[in-house]
Each structure stands twice: as C-alpha cells, then as structure tokens.
Design a protein that fits this description.
Layout: E1 8-11, H1 17-27, H2 38-47, E2 52-57, E3 60-69, E4 74-81, H3 90-105, E5 110-112, H4 119-127
Parallel strand pairs: 4-5
Antiparallel strand pairs: 1-2, 2-3, 3-4
Amino acid sequence: MGPDDRPTVREANASDFGPVLELWAAARSVHARTPDTREALERLLGDRPGSLLVAVREGRIVGALIAAWDGWRGNLYRLAVLEEHRRRGIALQLVREGERRLAARGARRISVLAGREDPVAEGLWTAAGYARDELIGRFVKNL
C-alpha cells in the first residue's frame, strides 16, 4: 500500500458505532474485560468529543482507536485494525494521529492500555516508540 492508498483517519460519529463495534468484536483481545456497547460509545463522544478515531478506506472502517484526553495526560486504547488490513501501517497511522490530537490539547505524556504478554501489541507499541513502564502498575475495579 503506497501513501496514496492510505486510509483517511477522522473523528468517528454516531453512524460509525455499528462498524466500530463489529471491528472491535472481530479483533477483540483475550485481555479485554469491559464490554463494548453503543451506550459506551455514546458516552465517550458525549463526554470526550473527538476521542474516537476511525481509519476509513473505500468507505469502510478498517481501524479504530480511542485517543482520550483527561485534562492531565493522554490515553490510547482500543486500537484495532481489521485482520485483512493489518501490516500496512494503519495502526501506526491511527497512533500518530491520536498523538497529534492529544499534543494539540496539551498532553505531554501518553499512556497506552495494552494486554500484557501480547507479542503483537507489544511489537506495535514498541515500534511506535513506547516503552513498558516497569515502575507503575495498574489497579482496576469493575463497577
């Protein structure tokens, strides 16, 4: 895929929810614990407009990423690319656009949520210039 064949990355809107949910279902990591729902996407765009990015090629959503700013730092998560479109730079294209948008909002540090011991995810994030934080762990609680 050459530069002219790259998908367009844009902010998602409500009409994208169905295709994004289908993409996430197809690419769901064994590490994912929180269900992906239309209501969650509605809240995301209501609370954090512009946080959901999609990569669109020939009218089809082929990738998605949440790039959220919490007022303190940027957070990247739920990165997914359709399997038949992987290894073409789409994930990195989404990451770079997310970084650009977060930096424009004031982010000086970005955290990534990725499954541990997932060589595909680790390879992508390492290639994108991210390092595993060995000092800070994450604690979670389902509500």
